[in-house]
Design a protein that fits this description.
By secondary structure, this protein is α/β, with parallel strands linked by helices. The chain has three domains: about 250 residues, HUPs (Rossmann fold), CATH 3.40.50; about 160 residues, Ribosomal Protein L25, Chain P, CATH 2.40.240; about 110 residues, Ribosomal Protein L25, Chain P, CATH 2.40.240. About 25% of the residues lie in helices and about 20% in strands. It is built from 13 helices and 29 strands. The strands form eight sheets. The protein has a seven-stranded mixed beta sheet, with no helix packed on it. The chain has a six-stranded mixed beta sheet with strand order 12-27-28-29-24-25, covered by helices on one side. It has a four-stranded antiparallel beta sheet with strand order 4-5-6-7. Helix 8 links the parallel strand 8 and strand 9. Helix 7 packs across helix 8 and helix 11 crosses helix 12. The two termini are about 35 Å apart. The structure holds adenosine-5'-triphosphate (ATP) and magnesium ion. The site of adenosine-5'-triphosphate has 15 residues, from helix 2 and strand 8. Adenosine-5'-triphosphate (ATP) binds next to helix 2 and strand 8.
Amino acid sequence: MAEEKKSLNFIEQIIEEDLKNGLPQEKLRFRFPPEPNGYLHIGHAASICLNFGLGLKYKAPVNLRFDDTNPAKEEQEYVDAIKKDIAWLGFKWDKELYASDYFQQLYDWAVEMIKKGKAYVDEQPQEKIIEQRGTPTTPGIESPYRNRPANESLDLLERMNKGELEEGAMVLRAKIDMSSPNMHMRDPIMYRILHKAHHRTDDKWKIYPMYDWTHGQSDYLEQVSHSLCTLEFKSHRPLYEWFIEQVYRGGLKPKQREFARRNLSYTVMSKRKLLQLVEEGHVKGWDDPRMPTISGLRRRGYTPEAIINFSELSGISKRENVTDVALLEFAAREHLNKVAPRRMAVLNPVKLIIDNYPEGQTEYLKAENNPEDDNAGYREIPFARELYIEREDFKENANRKFFRLTLGKEVRLKNAYIIKGESVVKDENGEITEIHATYDPLSKSGSGTPESKRKVKGTLHWVTAQHSIPAEIRIYDRLFLDEAPDGHKDRNFLEFLNPDSLQIDRKARLEPNLQDAKPGDRFQFTRLGYFVVDPDTKPGHLVFNRTVTLRDTWNKKK
Ligand code: ATP
Ligand code: MG
């Protein structure tokens, strides 16, 4: 996709407008502001691609700012995971910053606001404060502490922060307008008491600033030009602007603009729910390949390119919408098709014996690594008398539409010869234990003989019995059976968990070239799909995850 052909999204239009109205391009600055209370998910990827994408487009710096104002839920583990995921996606942040670095500055500004009569300490219980807020159509009630002298508030704020007061005993509120039609302007809380150690400031602070009192001020301190957030903050925008007015000392005033959250079908995206899946053991961890997290998608075999392309395809929108997970899978196939080397693997093996092939002989056949990539070259794969093919690729009594192996008909073995089914051996239960076939020695793939050019209806993948290696294969299905598991009023999202979302297969046999595959290596298994080596792999025990099938089979199943 050529850059100039793409039409501008509405955020880019806003920026272009600002540039036209005199904002110098070198003043453009963006940030991605995760709260380190969980791992990043595919929804965050929308915000990452948007912010870092703007940075690349306008050659502007993009800060990574951790919004770490709630020590009750935040941890260093999450900080590390977030950095790892953004770097893996291939984006480079300018500065690594923390809202907690501004705690002192925010405190000083709060003191100033008290002195100017713009903030006060309220000693009422939380329920009372909520009750007095009123409703969008009825004005709120002013707190009896609203007009207390500034020095009283200053003294109490200090005591709140010294740890002299219980959690919930008092709060600092901005003095704005209890009858504003915008509920966020009805004397919002700026500080609450929390007797919790913070992962960076330890026990220095006993009060912590609220999101609204932190985010805009951090943007202002960093001179972020466009602060992009999701739609639920639209109604906070007047407050965002009001707070910046209170502390303004020149320089650029950041602009908050909102875009729609990315939602994805067949999954949940709230960090609280993802944490619940992890903590209750419904999945094996944040990076379980069924999770919509970046780390889960990575372990599942997704490439950064696929995730970024998915972001392009799903776009940035002004209105809430749900993106079909099939689009994400499409993006994975599209990129993996170009980059994943082809290998052969048989997941459900049955023995195939070529009766007229010399016993004890092995020949090495040339096989293309990737027909989509001219530079991928060739590999050699062993061929011998005893092979494995997929059990499903043979039928004793097949109708005319069955283009795989049956008795008396020819099929091609991929990269090898044309064979004809001759007979079967069964065990006492009637299950086939061996298929016998004959091959045409003149039909070798790529040999150029008339026999090799003979048209046969089917081509099967295979491995040899002697050289193939065992592997554990993990096949994943959707984690939820419902399109919108958290969209039901009176049902818990966990009720929609798919009990068969993981199937483990230990019978698989792989071509020996996969012997040295390393965790993270991705392959296309001929006719089966894309697979990636899982980090659970140990010497002598290969574990693969199926990333995605070659075609969209889910829609057919429905
Ligand atoms: P959650 O509700 O999942 O906990 P959050 O919005 O609280 O998400 P943050 O860590 O605060 O998570 O998000 C960091 C940035 O990513 C914010 O700017 C937020 O707006 C954006 N973001 C989070 N979820 C999505 C999403 N589903 N789609 C687009 N942007 C998102
Ligand atoms: Mg948040």
